[in-house]
Amino acid sequence: MTNYDYDLFTIGAGSGGVRASRMSASYGARVAVAEELYLGGTCVNVGCIPKKLFSYAAHYAEDFEDSAGFGWTVGERRFHWPTLMANKDKEIARLNGIYRNILNNNDVKIFEARARLVDAHTIKVGGETVTAERILVAVGGWPVVPEFPGSEHAITSNEFFALPDMPQRVIIVGGGYIAVELASILHGFGAQVTQLYRGELFLRGFDKDVRTTLAEEMTKKGLDLRFKTDVATIEKNGDALTVNLKGGGVIDADAVLYATGRAPKSGGIGLEEIGVEMRENGAIMVDDYFQTSVDNIYALGDVTDRMQLTPVAIAEAMVLAANLYKGEKQVMDYADIATAVFSNPNIGTVGLTEEEARARHGAVDIYREAFRPLKHTLTSSQERTMMKLIVDPVSDRVLGCHMVGPDAGELVQGLGIALKCNATKAQFDATVGIHPTAAEEFVTMRTKVPEPEADPA
To answer: What is the CATH number of the domain that holds 429?
Structure first.
């Protein structure tokens, strides 16, 4: 027992902050948590959960069309945005309640107010001043819109999930996973969608075959993808927006949604004043044990800008709580973390991209298949699935698995276990597939992709 009010005070009640608080309390620590917006953080309220629900909703447009090939006659159909929004809000309120109960049931004190550090052990929160032996900063990130003429007319994913009406003409600016997901969702709802990205090809950092395959499939579905294109200005004309493009060109829209990145939400809570070191973008610098430059202050999750994924923040929280209050000395393992992108079609990926594998290992063996899924043999859909394995020819270990196609995230989760266990291509080959499924392709690929020809000197 210390002389402080709490053993641990957590700033931020997102997935990482709640898990760290709950687990620390279960190990006997006296814990409080402060949250100024909403319990559950970005993921529950304006991120993973509403996005996945909206993605489900958007797929019905194609499901109705595909059903005809299987003998179904579907009558008149119409998408009603307010119904989806109301049901989404009800589910999020339920999840908020679950988070509240988790904290209450573990005797974690909840402050629903902004917290600010006075010094390394003192916090002002909700009109009170409290003290803590240790402080955890888990405030997450926030969407960033660059400043340019008319940028105040743009919205972000935060505002998107609270729009009272669905925009019929939408420009989405950005090339990351949030941009392609929201572009796919709005297109599924029937909006006219234009996606702008200033680079050569979106989803930088993903495997090249994944990027090109998704671009081809989205284009086939009717999305207007414009690469090497950026916004110069946005002008408001009544209820509409006019977007002037750099290099020429004009697009009219009902909404312009920016998904060009997120920044750590570390400003204005007193970190700079007490000497917590941060990178230029506001990311809090931590060591392998999530300790900052101030030895009793810790940080994890998106505010550290390592891997901006909810399960990563939760895993980091488990490590931190065990280290602080169980006397362990764990280090977070960031290798082979599987992830999904809920675009249409979905992306599932785990391990190294081909580009990363070649940089680390030199020669690699590539196995790749692209095919029309069995479901679509009775429909008019021309969507194709792509699967890819990257193998180290020396050890035979599978270094990366990538997929673009229906339910890719569900499928690749299992492959994530295999990669974590250092599975080899021979072990993949020895696994009997489930027939007929798309998944069996990952254990039946036998033909290597020929090595790319070297560029002439």
So the answer is: 3.30.390.30
* Annotation says 402 is catalytic: no
Query: Same structural domain for residues 156 and 244?
Result: yes
Tell which residue, 159, 135, 390, 167, has the closest CA to residue 274. 135
Q: What is the pLDDT of residues 368-393, one digit of tens each?
A: 999 999 999 999 999 999 999 999 99
Q: Are 246 and 238 in contact (CB under 8 A)?
A: no
Sign of CA dihedral 151, 156, 162, 168: positive
Residue 192 lies in a domain: yes
290 domain residue, yes or no: yes
Same domain, 308 and 243: no
**Which of 153, 187, 361, 435 does the annotation list as catalytic?**
435
Q: Which domain holds residue 343?
A: 339-443
pLDDT of 334 reads: 96
Which residues, 6+ apart, have CB-to-CB distance to 234 below 8 Å? 148, 149, 150, 151, 153, 154, 241, 242, 243, 244, 256
Q: What is the pTM of this model?
A: 0.95
Q: List CB contacts of 295: < 8 A, sequence separation 6 or more.
A: none
The verdict on residue 333 lying in a domain is: no
CA 439, 443, 444, 447 dihedral sign is positive
- Count up the domains in the chain and report the number: 3
Start-to-end Cα distance in the chain: 70
Structure tokens at 376: 């679509």
Per the CB < 8 A criterion, the answer to whether 172 and 223 are in contact is no
Question: Any residues with CB less than 8 A from the CB of 333 and at least 6 apart, and which?
Answer: none
Q: How far is CA 451 from the centre of its chain?
A: 32
Interhelix angle 48-67/81-105, nearest 10 degrees: 140
Helices and strands in the chain, H and E counts: 11, 21
CA dihedral 341, 224, 253, 162 (to 10 degrees): -10
For residues 107 and 201, membership in a common domain is answered with no
Which amino acid, one-letter code, is at 353? T
Same domain flag for 246 and 268: no
Residue 161 region by backbone torsions, left for phi larger than 0, else alpha for psi between -120 and 50, else beta: alpha
Query: Does residue 449 form part of some domain?
Result: no
Q: Give the angle 260-266-268 at the CA atoms, nearest 5°.
A: 120
Per-residue pLDDT of 126-175, as tens digits, reads 999 999 999 999 999 999 999 999 999 999 999 999 999 999 999 999 99
- Cα dist. 288→108, 175, 247, 300 in Å? 26, 30, 46, 11
Using alpha carbons only, give the angle 193, 194, 200 rounded to the nearest 5 degrees.
140
